[in-house]
Amino acid sequence: MAIGFKERLHGVEIAYVTKDSPAYGYLKQGMVVSSVNGITIGSVDDWNENAASIRGPVKMTVDGSEYNFLVNESLGIEVEDIERTNLNFGMDLRGGTRIILKPKENATRSMIEQIIGTLQTRTNIYGLREMRFFPVETPEGWYVQIEATGVGSNVVEELLSSKGSFEAKISKPVELRDGKGRIQILSNFYNVEVMNETVTVDGKIIPENGSFVLEDIEFERDNITNNKAIFMALVYRGNDIEIVYTDPQHSGLIPVGNFYRFYFTVLVSNEGAQRFAKVTSGIPSQMDLSTGDSYLKDTSIYLYLDDNLQSSLRIASSLGGQAYSTPQIEGGREKIEDASEEKMKLQTILRSGALPVSMETKSISIISPTLGSNFVQSAMLAALLAGAVVMAIIFIRYRSLKISIPMALTGFSEIIIILGISASGAFDNVIWTGILLFNFVLIAMVWWKLRESDVSAWIGAILIPMLGLMSWNIDLSAIGGIIAAIGTGVDQMVVIADETLKGKKEMKKLYSIKERIGRAFSIIFASAAVTTSSLIPLLFVTAGVFVRGFVITTIAGILIGILITRPAYAKIVEMTVEKK
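Now predict its structure.
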């Protein structure tokens, strides 16, 4: 069972911490605030009344620890009521966060649409659930409005607001004698002259921090000494990246001392590889006495994202003058979770491409549940009443509690399994991996005992735990999916019961119980195949974000039914008939 109940905590849960907040970097999303300046905080109303507009010294109890801040303008913390289960409720049921992103430059409607497309790609790659993007026109210009659940400030600032401009530069050393030297690019040479702090390249004066172009390669003046000049050459840009590798062979995490190093490889275009070959040509090699490896002398490749240095790597001497197309990006964090998250963010940004302009956070606000806080309880009551009516009809139809009660319990178990699969938790991978292994052992024992094996049992034993590794939000559309799945489930169980109990006398004579159940399942499988194939295209339509929960929940319910609950109910019916 993947549905879990969290420890009963008193307080409110931090939903967002703005970058201007004095608590930024100290408090994070998901922490629980229980008191502010000695005042107990038990709900969002308590927070709004006693803490939202507080100024001056602030003493907060968060996750059992005390924090002290000095608030000048705003505390900059948005909170929400604590969720008591590990079910992921959507904005319809729980509410969420509304974030307004403002372009740092003037942006047109078409640029905003391009920004939204790139951000949607980033969120899909990163695995964020239920994020909606809207263009918003104001007197000040076009903005991007984001509505989401469970999105922290780190995701907004580092993933969504990041422009994603990637550059790779290589330091190109030039040896000087009497102030003169030459830049070598493959078989071509360009004169360099340094005299009285004046630097001339190929007859052109290069001012301090100035740039120049040689053979379509941009160079920047970097460091000049009496016997050496170093220039930075731009070899890769974001549009040169063709593939960002995420497989274990090309990316991973390695513990190094007290921190974790992450790395991953990217594949760049042939044009970028040729620029690498031109820049690294003619550079002498030098042996590292500590490792015995040979590298290009005074040369490194520097990788930048939004003008921030991400990693710098020395270049092996064997790569000098070669078309190198698979550079490796590296980094490190103290915790393995932070290292993994940072690697994922960089991979996501590089795979999605750069935004046309940089973005900044304009405002953040909390969205109240559109359906009201009591909607879930009302929906559960309505479901119980509807279930009671359906079971009464089933009992009138078959006049047997041995048929109607198992049908009701089977339908209820489907709801629990669907919710269990949709839930997320810290130990989901462990739980579902254990269930997968247990399924294998159980089926193997059945085969060893009876010397027979059910193909559908094997499929269910593998597929259901794999579905359990997924998680999605329970919103209004997902609730509709649960209702649809239960409705089709009851229909299919009626087919099983009718084919087994209410068939014609001639059919009962010609076919055994197992054969009649097999006939029922042929109908069920055909119906499930048609329903599933008709739902899958909805995931790819423009409005797919609004029906995603319905589609995933309905398909999950169908698979659970035909692989687990329908066979179980058929076995109950078979045992009932055999006893008669």
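The chain has five domains: 1-87, 92-163+355-371, 166-238, 240-352, 375-425+471-579.
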